[in-house]
Amino acid sequence: MQSNSQHDHKTTPFWWEAAPVKPLPPKSLPTKIDVAIVGAGYAGLSAALQLVRAGRSVICLDKMNPGEGASSRNGGITSGNIRLDHATLVRRFGENRALAIEAEGKKAREFLYSFIESEGLACDFKRVGRFSGAVGKQDYEGLARTAEKLEKKLGIEAFAVPQAEQRNYLGTDFYRGGSVRMDIGGLHPAKFHAEILRVALEAGVQVHSGAAVRKVDRLNDGFNVLTDAGQVLARQVLVCTNGYTDASDPWLRRRMVPVRSRIIATEELSPNLMATLMPRLMMCSETRNLGFYYRPSPDGKRILLGGRDGSTSGDPIEPTLHLKRNLDELFPELQNVSVTHSWFGHVAMHRDMIPRIFERDGIVYATGFCGSGVVWAPWIGAQAAKKLLDAQMQARSAFDFRPPAAVPFYSGKPWFMPGVMAWYRHLDRKLMRRAGR
């Protein structure tokens, strides 16, 4: 790890090697449009595709290059996590919505897989399953119960893996067993975005890079959307900015907290070592509050590991070293292996902690994916498009209801994140002690 202490790694995403993000050729904005979408990531493009195929004229406006945010910076794991357990969902939203939210997770994943297949999206997708590692015996029992529930209630192939059988799935002794669910896979996130962009452009969606939206004014018959590239009159507006929401929408900014998630990629490993450490080439997660997610690269030659960054500005080296230390703890065989890439992206957290569709002053929002946007962003984007097409639709998404509440004393700078991270670290220390570790 000597080289990495000297920043001898790339700070751009590993994914950009095969699918670099780039600006689109500049073109003039139209004078009028049916729907203006703010953000050209997974959610914005997914919505745009649905709308343009329904006969609407659609423009996607992105302040960066399309996909330059979380859509090309994530781990590419099709987890579709709901961060709240069933009891918490019931307490916050009621029994009916809680059940509907859980059921919709299965629909969202199936939508994603069908979308990839039907559109012919070349994004290295493989449904390899996900192994979740238990830190202690109590966690293992919880994972086993969850796997049993998934199998019985939703028909998802899922099963517990006792510690004695763990190395058949993952080459580590760190966990005390775990569980597997086979409906989860991995894809190349930057290729996935590039392919959605290709299909959207071919369908007639107008996509503009470097067109930051500065203001949206309500008019009698629509909206005036002011951007760095000019202004456009839109009959409807959909906002899909998620963790990259800025001061142009202060109301939304008070509700979406950008949290850094960082990923490191190792140098290429030998086939024998990869076969030892990741014999099934599965996606991986664990039960710690500040747990890690990790996976093999699509070509099966590297290991990528990600987790919460903890920093709020600049690009400090410590978060990279922290991830590498934890990778080495999982796999001691990697202690002398170098990191070639370390990068971060913003996930959007909010007080409801579930993906959301909501409306304010006629503007529809599809946002708040809480770190699981590979599954949720295309699904929520598509559901938001249906809402725009039919405001009176009966079969609304379970995620379509009131806006999340504002975060107190927050206006864009997450000053409280060090305290939040310290609290979760405290919980993880308690978890490890309870597990006798």
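[next item in queue]
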Amino acid sequence: MTHHARPPDRPHPPAQARGCRDTPILKQRGQHEVFCGLTGIIWLHRKMQDAFFLVVGSRTCAHLLQSAAGVMIFAEPRFGTAILEEGDLAGLKDAQDELERVVVDLLTRRADIRQLFLVGSCPSEVIKLDLARAAERLSAKFAPKVRVLNYSGSGIETTFTEGEDACLAAMVPALPETDARQLLLVGALPDVVEDQALDLLKALGIGPVSVLPARHLESGLAVGPNTVFALTQPFLGGTHAALERRGARHLSAPFPFGEEGTTAWLQAVAREFGVDQAHFDAVTGAPRARARRAVAKAADALRGKSVFFFPDSQLEIPLARFLTRECGMQALEVGAPFIHKGLVGEELDLLAEGPTLAEGQDVELQLDRCRAARPDLTVCGLGLANPLEAEGLATKWAIELVFTPVHFYEQAGDLAGLFSRPLRRRNLLQLEAAE
């Protein structure tokens, strides 16, 4: 049932605080620290239960995936590596023929595969292996049982969350057409978090609702001019553009991190579908209260503390908004690999003026600014965390924020806890050292 009445008001920044949408952005173009985009496979292969990710790369790519996933030697996961040997790299073999042989063998052994992704890597891109042509040829060969797509997971000049963006963007052109009025949730979430979101939307009377990526190919997922979509991740710029090319319309909103972000995200959807304010409050009141209590408890160690974000996951701007507005922290610098105002503009409206906004990275210059600022907490990649810890700075691994369930009301306290634990640990170590 859909309730039609005055749409709920969109939350605005407090009157005394100007947002950061028009703040000048420090553009950085220099040496940068990145984590490989192939790591997106680690959460995507768990999400899409009839898909297989075949990385066309080197033994280094295979070792990375095995190490990142922690896969047991006897397990048969839904990803693997077609290893480029010396003969492939030297052009002594026909890499297209070799790849087709590997795919035929894989699909013969694994009858459960319905979607096969050929994932490009640094080595395959260096030798200009045309995976798009290979995917088109193999898809025609194995249709309709298996759909073969390709995307790049290369870590050259990208950040690791772009792997998911490239994967979802590659899926969009192959989706069936529909004229049905529907909501599409876009972004890979842990199943339990996705189920919570779907339950909230169902309780609000909003539907039908589809999810990209779907757990199974035969989910009925389709897109068209009457599709409106809401992003759950701020790093999906390519997917956003691909959906708009299919005629879908984006619902701009803050992202569902913390109580405030989740409420604003839900209100954007509720406004689109004409949900009555009283009904909205009735559905969200209890989980909102739980989230506020959980955040307040976890944020005791954060209030009044400063935070400095290195560019890593593209979650930085929404997380800075959450930490400053809900946890009482002060953001000194918020660095992001890319700042796409079409995606994070509403977050910038809520983020109070004050921090330096930086796009891209020149790692030595940013390290200098971080050392000069001496923040209470530094959010950065694995390669920078240990050296900064050795210099006496408390750090938070940015990649953990991608692998951990942190979206929507029930995870709001856990999200605050991810930031408060490093500070509590630092305090305990200082107390032990003083004794």
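[queue empty]
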